[in-house]
Specification:
Largest interface: A-B, 46 and 48 residues
Strand content of chain A: 25-35%
Shape of chain B: extended
CATH architecture of one domain in chain A: 3-Layer(aba) Sandwich
CATH superfamily of the largest domain in chain B: Reverse transcriptase/Diguanylate cyclase domain
Order of helices and strands of chain A: EHEEEHEHEEEEE
EC number (chain B): 2.7.7.7
Oligomer: heterodimer
Number of helices of chain A: 3
Strand content of chain B: 25-35%
Number of helices of chain B: 13
Strand order of the largest sheet of chain A: 4-2-5-6-1-7-8-9-10
CATH class of one domain in chain A: Alpha Beta
Enzyme class (chain B): transferase
Radius of gyration of chain A: 16 Å
Number of strands of chain A: 10
CATH superfamily of one domain in chain A: P-loop containing nucleotide triphosphate hydrolases
Helix content of chain B: 25-40%
Largest sheet of chain B: 6 strands, antiparallel
Keywords (chain B): DNA damage, Transferase
Distance between the termini of chain B: 83 Å
CATH class of the largest domain in chain B: Alpha Beta
Protein name (chain B): DNA-directed DNA polymerase
Family (chain B): Belongs to the DNA polymerase type-Y family.
Shape of chain A: globular
Chain lengths: ~180, ~475
């Protein structure tokens, strides 16, 4: 029986977290909207999928700065730089290949030095052990609501793993937990 | 203190300035003209001596000129480049005297009062000046006089002889006045000077008398020397070569201190900086720094150099450092605000540092654009050269991800009940739509060749929410985006 409030959310600041699954982008945007301040989003420039600022839920596109890199090495370097600097309180890194423990730890240290929250969007099953939490985000069909998602906390360094059904509440500008419908 | 009669002015006139400049760079024989588009006609802007000898003249239609002279070669004129070249000549001419100004688009004026003796007298100085210019390939006429007007007249209408005998056109008058004076029978400056002033002023206005007085020296005329453009480069030469990063950074700090002082004096900020390091073996290493916004604070610029300096191979050591602000932008002094806790410059510094790795043009920001076409409803701009845009509003929900349309193997104008996308079999739970979007006919877009589109927001039972469209004019279904 899932609880009515998210345990490891909002994300623990000054740490790097991970999100995977089809709705990972939403997870990043919603979290960025709640964090406040500028957001730096690092992704590889060659990818055919493009972010559409008109589709952002919660986050004002004016707060987003996108860094388009050539490969994963650049992504990690730019991400570490941004995390360590702390000028933007939230940094999103889109990764395409698994990263090792050393790399993950480096990002973690950079986030701690800059007081910045980092979020790596990873392909499924490619997480790094250094991550503070890992979330699997799936959209859920609902007859009334088109923002409903299922967030499963699949790794948590300082707590238990759980899963919640959530939706974005545009009036309150927050993530709301909804109780699952009993079948 | 000099009064007007003791001044000595040299006027330089380059009769074929534009064509001489081009011929210096691209030497060629035979008649040559520069053409300039004026209105609908292509006209002769400037021509060389050979073309003049064939009877061509300025202002004639280029087609006529070619008919007169079939072996004529030509190039388009570039007045802006001519201006730049004249500015270079002006700067060069300050070797003779400090007061050098422009005289029209093809002349210079030098106030050589008190400097001619340094070059062996006035005649020797003029001879040397014209010889140097002629050797550089520029036809030049020099005239000297006690006033600017007299020098101008002698440069263009004969260097020798008294001023009185020169034609009235030498008074820098407009053509109508010249014609009018000639109709009155006044042909030389002497004749005009001798005639009664009041009727002349009544008939031709004050301009004529002003020019006459300026030529004769009864009314003063200034020469405005151009201010030297500020030079944003500093250099540090070292007695012993250095090689450690910390040493180079310390040298850079010294250079920055001086450069930023200069930038502050002129209320400008550097946008692109170039640090060139000369090694002992004569080789140069350059570190370029592109800034996300104009800066002149040494404490903020210095750390940004660290990465570039660290990568430089010092070889056997560096014995000279030169720091130049390649691109400079105005940066007015700002009032120090008492409110505002966050420093907006921090983010710019971060953008600069990211930009040094991946290129400043790859750090971008989204700006709203006015279009119904989903992929053109926003533009991207380098974050360093733009400010955040407002007015993000979409009347209909739009997907977070956009990708090139992926075809679906289904038919019919209604959204499919079941379809296969990316090897996933998906069942439609709810479809919202259609939202019809027509291509913008005034823009040619390859992707919209298939005509208008009916967009559907399809929520599948499996969870994925997709943005599908149907093209009624060329029946087919495509997936173009995903609502996350």
């Amino acid at each position: 029986m899932p609880s009515s409030s998210l345990t490891a959310y909002p994300l623990r600041p000054a740490r790097v977290h991970e999100a995977c699954g089809p709705s990972a982008a939403s997870f990043a945007l919603w979290t960025a909207a709640l964090t406040g301040g500028d957001v730096i989003w690092v992704r590889e420039g060659w990818r055919s999928e493009q972010l559409n600022p008109l589709g952002f839920q919660g986050l004002d596109p004016a707060r987003l700065i996108l860094a388009q890199t050539g490969d994963q090495n650049d992504t990690l370097a730019v991400g570490e730089e941004a995390l360590r600097d702390g000028a933007a309180p939230f940094v999103v890194l889109e990764l395409t290949a698994p990263i090792g423990l050393t790399t993950g730890r480096r990002l973690q240290l950079a986030a701690r030095a800059g007081g910045t929250t980092g979020l790596c969007l990873i392909p499924e099953g490619m997480g790094s052990n250094a991550a503070e939490t890992r979330w699997h985000c799936n959209p859920v069909f609902d007859a009334q609501d088109s923002t409903r998602q299922r967030w499963s906390l699949i790794k948590n360094k300082s707590g238990t793993c759980e899963a919640w059904n959530v939706r974005w509440d545009p009036e309150a500008h927050r993530v709301a937990v909804v109780s699952p419908v009993r079948e | 203190m000099f009064d007007g009669t003791q001044r000595r002015i040299v006027s330089l006139w380059f009769p074929r300035f534009a064509s001489d400049r081009v011929l210096r760079a691209h030497p060629q024989e035979g008649p040559f003209v520069l053409t300039l588009q004026q209105g609908n006609a292509n006209r002769v802007h400037c021509l060389n001596e050979a073309a003049q000898a064939r009877g061509l003249q300025r202002g004639m239609a280029f087609a006529d000129a070619r008919a007169f002279c079939p072996d004529l070669s030509s190039r388009p004129a570039d007045p802006a480049e001519d201006q730049r070249f004249l500015a270079l000549l002006r700067r060069w001419a300050t070797r003779w005297c400090p007061w050098v100004g422009f005289e029209g688009p093809d002349g210079l004026v030098l106030d050589i009062t008190g400097s001619a003796h340094l070059f062996g007298g006035e005649a020797a100085m003029i001879a040397s000046l014209t010889a140097r210019l002629t050797r550089a390939g520029l036809a030049v006429e020099a005239g000297t006089g006690g006033t600017r007007g007299a020098a101008w007249a002698r440069a263009r209408y004969g260097a020798g002889g008294p001023l009185d005998s020169l034609p009235i056109a030498a008074l820098r008058l407009d053509p109508e006045t010249v014609t009018g004076l000639q109709r009155m029978g006044l042909r030389s400056i002497g004749q005009v000077a001798a005639s009664p002033r009041a009727p002349l002023a009544r008939r031709f206005g004050a301009e004529l008398l002003l020019r006459l007085d300026q030529a004769l020296g009864t009314r003063p005329e200034q020469i405005s020397p151009e201010a030297e453009p500020p030079h944003y480069a500093v250099r540090l030469t070292l007695p012993e070569p250095i090689g450690r990063t910390a040493d180079v950074m310390a040298g850079t700090a010294r250079l920055l201190e001086r450069l930023c002082g200069k930038l502050t004096d002129h209320q400008t900020g550097a946008r692109v900086l170039c640090l060139s390091l000369r090694r002992v073996d004569g080789d140069f290493r350059a570190v370029e720094l592109r800034l996300a916004r104009p800066l002149r604070d040494p404490a903020r610029i210095l750390p940004l150099f660290e990465r570039g300096v660290d990568e430089v191979d010092a070889g056997f050591g560096i014995d000279q450092m030169r720091l130049e602000a390649v691109t400079v932008e105005p940066l007015p002094v700002e009032q120090i605000a008492q409110t505002g806790t966050r420093d907006p410059g921090r983010l710019d510094d971060l953008i600069t540092r990211i930009g040094t790795r991946i290129g400043l043009e790859n750090v971008i920001r989204y700006l709203p654009a006015d279009s119904h076409i989903p992929e053109q409803a926003f533009t991207i701009a380098p974050a360093a050269f733009s400010s955040p845009g407002n007015g993000w509003a979409s009347p209909r929900p739009r997907p977070v991800w956009l990708f090139p349309p992926e075809p679906l193997a289904v038919t019919g104008p209604r959204p499919p009940r079941q379809f296969v996308w990316r090897r996933m079999t998906l069942t439609t739970g709810r479809a919202t739509g259609p939202e019809r979007i027509s291509p913008e006919w005034w823009l040619i877009d390859e992707a919209w060749q298939s005509g208008m589109r009916d967009y559907w927001q399809v929520e599948t039972v499996q969870g994925r929410r997709l943005w599908l469209f149907y093209t009624p004019q060329n029946p087919g279904w495509f997936v173009q985006g995903e609502f996350a």
